[in-house]
Design brief:
The complex is a heterodimer of chains A (388) and B (320).
Chain A (H helix, E strand, L loop, with lengths): L6 H18 L5 H10 L9 H26 L4 H23 L9 H20 L5 H19 L2 H22 L2 H4 L1 H21 L7 H19 L1 H11 L13 H21 L3 H21 L5 H22 L7 E2 L6 H4 L3 H9 L2 H7 L19
Helix pairs in contact in A: 1-2, 3-5, 4-5, 5-6, 6-7, 7-10, 9-10, 10-13, 12-13, 16-17
Chain B lengths: L4 H7 L5 H11 L4 E2 L1 H25 L4 H24 L15 H22 L1 H5 L1 H18 L3 H14 L6 H6 L8 H21 L7 H21 L4 H22 L3 H20 L8 H19 L9
Helix pairs in contact in B: 1-2, 3-5, 4-5, 5-7, 7-8, 10-11, 11-12, 11-13, 12-13
Classes of the chains: A mainly alpha (388), B mainly alpha (320).
Chain lengths: 388, 320
């Protein structure tokens, strides 16, 4: 399926945005930016964030006017008719979105998002309404289809998130409905399902002909990592087993395969962190920090000493301690990691040699040769060699 | 989307080879920055620690270890500020660069611990409770001093919040949520006067080139307090015409602020306030007995607004 947006136009806009950033931070000259801006000029209407929010809210108000008006017309009719009318209305507004806004050069302008979510809502609501909202299959599958369609065609990140979550929901409910042993293996199904998705999406992200969807892939990538972790997390499995599968845990007992989940709760965040650092993968790194915190919380939840305020204080202290240590450690660049904001004027105005040397050789040497190197400068930061 | 762009721009001769090599190091991920990650973690750590310490002290008031923990808390607060002042540069009216990346967070930690400390003193000793207003005022003054002396925007927010609460105006999201933004009667008048006065001071300070980067924070608080105050006044029915005029005046001010500060956040506030005000006016007058007109009204008014924004899009660009 193709995007509703013109690929080269969207790409040109992205080029202008990124080169503007480079110019602002001193990586390129103003003249160069202007040349690029001229060469890649586009007519897309993509306002700044606040205007987008403003337009989004205003569009929602305006749409509510239309829906209330239409609602009054169909209000007296039979429920099935209303459901069909809703889904038809949803589908029609997809068309109107393209005709009235996207074809008139709107690109994620706030108006487009508002109409898009409203179309998704009516289509899904109408489809579920046809089955009286009690058929989980219909609801989940229509979510998956409508959200995937919106994610792919309109490059929308929120829809991508919703589509991924609907997929997870389908996976869960289909196995849950079969019952018996299949309910028990849901966590492993999740891990086995989302791991290949993660690697596949990572591969797709590299393909240049799919570059329009790179942010969407990024979204799926991070959500997959979170699902893989959640499926192995002891707390998630235990609480879901108790509340949904009527599992009763007797005093001193535990859930089936408890040791596996304990291990996964510890190992998965460690793995994310290790590979995140090793491969310099920021997605992995960020997700690892979040899930690491959740793992600590999991253990504290079941093995608490009953003093949350002490835990809080202590956790804060440890976090401050670790962070300051890492900040001091990264005073000079190690292994390509730096504590500085790379997209800043300091980096932009530096000569590329210092930049490269600091990256390839590490701190000590470059300190001597290039006193102007960011962060390295004044206090020589010894003991760099350990990490090289 | 733009991972291959540096190469493309280099091939097309838009950027030089040196520039390309430099940009490519960043975009290809050979060098990664954990700038924001470290900052977020540190912020989280400071928040957890100060919250934990605050609760710890409240829960254990009266215990034996209590005096010791208060003493430790006081020492920590002093240590934070000692660190901050010993590293601080001389006062200037401009933006100051932090001496270390974690400097701001240590200052923040000191301030939050100070709040716990002061709260405890208030609880323990009656003379502070009797003069609650003045102790708040002193806190506000202290925070303003820190904000200006150490150039800390976070402290400016704390100071404005404390100063507003001296006038019994609660500026916290929890209060908005529970709906008792102005706990007393006619406090909205205080809020309107307070925010107007503060805004005037902020603009004067800006014109005198004193900490120009603080202006946004000041005006942001002012706009919020002003609009919430005026809208509350509006809903009190009696004098709604006056409050409506006040809202419109505020919107005009917010509009010019948006252009001046190059922040459209003010435009968002203005739109919301004006829309609520106008809708209220119409509900009281022509729409009062015509429910069926509502849907047309909301469609026409918002549709018109969207059309206006898009039509004059060049007017709403970040840079001229």
């Amino acid at each position: 399926m193709n995007s509703a947006y013109n690929e080269s136009l969207v790409y040109h806009l992205a080029v202008i945005k990124v080169s503007k950033k480079w110019w602002k931070h001193g990586f390129i000259e103003k003249q160069q930016f202007e040349n690029i801006q001229q060469a890649y000029a586009v007519q897309l209407y993509n306002p700044n964030l606040i205007i987008r929010i403003l337009l989004f809210i205003a569009t929602l108000f305006a749409l509510s006017g239309i829906t209330v008006f239409l609602g009054l017309i169909v209000a007296e009719m039979n429920e099935d008719v209303i459901a069909i009318a809703c889904s038809t209305y949803g589908i029609v507004s997809f068309f109107l979105l393209e005709k009235l806004f996207i074809n008139k050069n709107h690109y994620k302008s706030g108006v487009t998002e508002a109409i898009l979510y409203h179309s998704c809502g009516f289509t899904i609501g109408g489809l579920s309404g046809i089955t009286d909202f009690d058929n989980m299959h219909v609801i989940l599958w229509s979510c998956l289809i409508v959200f995937s369609f919106s994610a792919i065609r309109y490059l929308d990140l929120l829809c991508t998130l919703a589509a991924t979550v609907s997929f997870a929901g389908i996976l869960f409910f289909e196995f849950y409905n079969i019952g018996g042993i299949f309910q028990q293996i849901i966590p492993f199904v999740f891990i086995a399902g989302f791991t290949p998705i993660y690697f596949w999406v990572k591969k797709l992200k590299q393909r240049i002909n799919l570059r329009l969807w790179r942010n969407n892939f990024l979204m799926i990538e991070s959500i997959s990592l979170l699902f893989i972790y959640a499926a192995g997390n002891y707390m998630v499995v235990r609480e879901l087993s108790v509340s949904m599968m009527n599992l009763e845990i007797i005093e001193g007992g535990d859930i089936p395969f408890a040791f596996i989940f304990y291990t996964l709760t510890v190992i998965i965040p460690m793995m994310y962190l290790y590979f995140g650092i090793k491969k310099k993968d920021m997605v992995l790194l960020r997700v690892s920090l979040i899930v690491l915190a959740f793992s600590v919380f999991t253990f504290k939840y079941y093995y608490s000493l009953g003093h949350p305020e002490i835990t809080l204080t202590f956790a804060g202290l440890v976090l401050i301690g670790i962070t300051i240590t890492v900040m001091r450690y990264l005073k000079i660049m190690r292994n390509g990691f730096t504590r500085e904001n790379i997209l800043s004027e300091k980096w932009g105005n530096m000569s590329v040699e210092a930049f490269v040397i600091s990256q390839t050789m590490g701190g000590n040497q470059s300190n001597v040769d290039h006193p102007s190197m960011p962060g390295g400068g004044s206090s020589g930061g010894g003991g760099a060699s350990s990490s090289f | 989307m733009t991972k291959e762009t540096p190469k493309e721009l280099f091939d097309k001769n838009f950027i030089t080879e040196e520039q390309f090599r430099k940009i490519d190091l960043v975009t290809s991920g050979k060098i990664v920055s954990v700038f924001y990650e470290l900052r977020s973690l540190l912020y989280l750590g400071v928040m957890l620690f100060t919250a934990g310490a605050g609760i710890l002290i409240y829960e254990n008031i009266g215990d034996i270890g209590h005096q010791i923990s208060i003493f430790v808390l006081g020492l920590l607060t002093i240590a934070c500020f000692w660190y901050a002042f010993s590293r601080a540069t001389n006062y200037t009216n401009d933006k100051v660069k932090s001496p270390t990346p974690y400097y701001d967070y240590i200052v923040l930690c000191g301030g939050l611990l100070f709040i716990s400390f002061q709260g405890y003193l208030q609880f323990q000793y009656d003379f502070l409770t009797d003069n609650l207003g003045y102790s708040t005022l002193i806190t506000a003054a202290f925070f303003f001093f820190i904000a200006y002396r150490l150039d800390h925007v976070g402290f400016l927010s704390l100071a404005i919040t404390a100063f507003a609460s001296f006038w019994s105006i609660s500026v916290s999201p929890q209060k908005w949520y529970s709906g008792d933004f102005f706990s007393g009667s006619h406090l909205y008048n205080t809020a309107i006067i307070f925010s107007t006065a503060l805004a005037i001071i902020a603009v004067i300070l800006n014109k005198k080139n004193v900490k120009k980067h603080f202006t946004f924070t000041y005006l942001n608080f002012c706009a919020l307090i002003f609009f919430v105050g005026a809208i509350t006044g509006l809903f009190d029915k009696e004098w709604y015409g006056i409050y409506l005029l006040l809202i419109y005046a505020g919107c005009v001010f917010a509009y010019f602020t948006a252009r001046w500060e190059k922040s459209f956040l003010f435009l968002l506030y203005a739109f919301m306030a004006a829309y609520i005000g106008t809708t209220y006016l119409l509900a009281e007058t022509i729409l009062a007995n015509a429910v069926e007109l509502w849907s047309i009204y909301s469609f026409a008014s918002c549709g018109g607004f969207i059309y206006f924004i898009i039509k004059y899009r060049n007017h709403f660009k970040q840079e001229a």
